[in-house]
Design goal:
Blueprint (H helix, E strand, L loop, with lengths): L2 E6 L3 H11 L5 E7 L2 H11 L3 E4 L7 H8 L5 E6 L4 H10 L3 E4 L4 H12 L4 E2 L1 H12 L11 H4 L3 H11 L4 H8 L3 H15 L4 H10 L4
Parallel strand pairs: 1-2, 1-3, 3-4, 4-5, 5-6
Helix pairs in contact: 2-3, 4-6, 8-10, 8-11, 9-10
Protein name: LuxR family two component transcriptional regulator
Organism: Nocardia alba
Keywords: DNA-binding, Phosphoprotein, Transcription, Transcription regulation
Amino acid sequence: MSVRVFLVDDHAVFRSGVRAELSRETDMEVVGEAGAVTEAVAGIDAAKPDVVLLDVHMPDGGGVAVLGGIAEGPVCLALSVSDAAEDVIAVIRAGARGYVTKTISGAELADGIRRVAGGDAVFSPRLAGFVLDSFTGRSPVPEPPLDPELDSLTPRELEVLRLLARGYTYREIAESLFISVKTVETHASNVLRKTQQSNRNALTRWAHRRRIE
């Protein structure tokens, strides 16, 4: 029996890569895709998939907005470059059944889809810890402090910042986000300008002080 999958991500190149990976699985069928919230909600309701692979950071509310807009039926597995606790908790509270990051392999992603389709919750051990701590009340996710420089970053710039802080090269970031090296350089330049840092080393220290990693 085939698992019907719907892809939601605002980057067409990334969707193409996921579609190609899942096409190798004999028990999976990609029945639709969308790059924006409104398009995703309409497409999911029409296609009636078993599993929705859902990006977290998109314009107009992102994955949380999609979860709030679709009818009951499909299970949703968040697929994001971010492994920040606040992102994980937000989409799980909105109704996602699991959360994996875009560093996952094609085989691991396919296994995650099968598991959520079968009723399991799917997380890496670290992300599962965030969820357990949040719902037991032992370590609630705090409201982030006001930070005008950080708030000025777009979701994509924040993704690039997190990977820079982890020591990724521009090429590694490009491969992880399915964008060109030139685009990464542009985002990195914007991040430096907005955070008023002079170079990458200073930016990494700035990010670590804010626990962005």
